[in-house]
Amino acid sequence: MAVLLDAGAPLHERDEAGLTPLEIATRWGELETAGLLERRGADPASVTDADRAIAAIMAGDAPPRQPLDTAAFDEMLDLAVQGGHLDAVRALLHAGAAPDGRPQQEHTPLRQAAWRGYAEIVAELLRHGASLVWEQGSPIGAALHGSRHCQNPEGGPTMQTYDEVPKERYAKVVTDLLHAGAAVPERLGGDGPATATILAELGLDPFA
């Protein structure tokens, strides 16, 4: 963060949700980052009671007396899932984040978690009622596609060779989805590889 600030990163510019960098750091409980921003000139007055209430929830403290707009939790859940932050996912779901995400977002939290091979996050989303039926694609399809193409959850496709893909975590995701009742597609996409082939690559019996 200090390097970015030294390079001229704006202190007061708001993101698409209208939040300043200091508000974002506060909400996520990033105290060191928040302190650095303040020392560099960020206005503490930009932090609202809602920001502090969200920070308390993320830290596991008692919920606020006044109800909060859960839209903020939905946005944060998407980021927490992408980053693989299980504790944050749990806190956000407990606070009321929608397990299927925002209606307008491109990918649901379950799709993100399955594609990235985050088995524990997939299980957490399933416990909170994430839908197994999508208009396009399927959770198992997302996991199988990720097992061949995600490779590095943080870096994205092509960051590792195929042999370096951690097969075990994808096998766990698929197994949990099967136990939850997810449908198994015949192929990935209209003309993609047969699902049975990729299940076998993960050490799973495609005919079990």
Could you characterize the architecture of this molecule?
The chain has a domain of 105 residues: Ankyrin repeat-containing domain (Serine Threonine Protein Phosphatase 5, Tetratricopeptide repeat). By secondary structure, the protein is mostly helical. The model has no long low-confidence stretch (mean pLDDT 85).
Topology record:
Elements: H1 2-6, H2 21-27, H3 31-39, H4 49-58, H5 71-83, H6 86-95, H7 109-116, H8 119-127, H9 139-149, H10 167-180, H11 195-201
Helix pairs in contact: 2-3, 2-4, 5-6, 5-7, 6-8, 7-8, 7-9, 8-10, 9-10
Descriptive terms for the model:
mainly alpha; 208 residues; Serine Threonine Protein Phosphatase 5, Tetratricopeptide repeat; single chain
- How many strands, which pairing sense, and closed or not: the largest β-sheet? none
The Cα radius of gyration reads: 20 Å
Distance between the termini: 50 Å
Structural class: mainly alpha
Shape: elongated
Specify the CATH architecture of the domain at 104-208: Alpha Horseshoe
Beta-strand residue percentage: under 5%
What string, H for helix and E for strand, traces the elements in order? HHHHHHHHHHH
What share of the residues lie within helices? 40-55%
Low-pLDDT residue intervals, each spanning 5 or more residues: none
- Structure summary, number of beta strands: 0
Mean pLDDT: 85
